[in-house]
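Q: what sequence does this backbone want?
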């Protein structure tokens, strides 16, 4: 560990998880409202299937990446929103520490 490594910011300028952006959008595929998970029974069934198999062989269940349970159109909308926020924000060196520069929750 180098002493020159910069300390990570306590409050990130943007939400650390891309799925927070996806979740803030209504899903055009299944109609899930902002903040609600996608209605994706086949995606959920696949996760359940693998966790059943894991249970049978004595492995703990895995928590899936939230993005895996969302429809692609919604993830894309979230990514576009995030890209726009990052493009609109000041350069990292001009940002105020501890301030968020995302527009989530304001839309
Ligand atoms: Zn959906």
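A:
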């Amino acid at each position: 560990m180098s002493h020159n490594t910069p300390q990570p910011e306590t409050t990130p300028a943007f939400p650390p998880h891309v799925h927070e952006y996806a979740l803030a959008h209504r899903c055009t595929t299944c109609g899930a409202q902002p903040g609600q998970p996608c209605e994706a029974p086949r995606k959920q069934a696949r996760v359940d299937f693998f966790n059943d198999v894991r249970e049978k062989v004595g492995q703990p269940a895995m928590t899936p990446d939230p993005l895996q349970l969302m429809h692609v159109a919604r993830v894309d909308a979230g990514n576009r929103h995030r890209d726009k926020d990052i493009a609109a924000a000041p350069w990292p060196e001009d940002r105020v520490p501890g301030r968020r520069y995302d527009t989530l929750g304001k839309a």
